[in-house]
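pinging the channel bc i need a second pair of eyes. not urgent but kinda urgent?? the chain im working w is below, pasted from the shared doc
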Amino acid sequence: MKIVNIAEAKAHLSEYIAAVEAGETVTIARRNKAVAKLVPVVTETVDKEPRPIGLAKGKITIHSSFFEPMDEEELALWEGMKMLPSDPLNPDFDPHWTPEQNEHS
């Protein structure tokens, strides 16, 4: 283990990083009192087995309407051709707009 002062650590940081990569520990001191420690990063090995397919089977339901084609208005909203007043990117943004207001118009 090496102990170096801050000025030396600044001047020779790349050397100390190389030492840490080689497995050493470098302690940085201010006025001979340890204040920081450079240590190698421990990388986790990924030896885990992949998750099996179907863990959520039966826990999620998708309504049949999900597969139905969108009408022209929904498609325009999806593709960004139309913006709702509640969309923050809309130049006429209205944070209090609700879909019910659209029905009464």
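so Residues 2 and 26 are 5 Å apart (CA to CA). and Residues 66-98 form one domain. — does that match what u expected or am i reading it wrong
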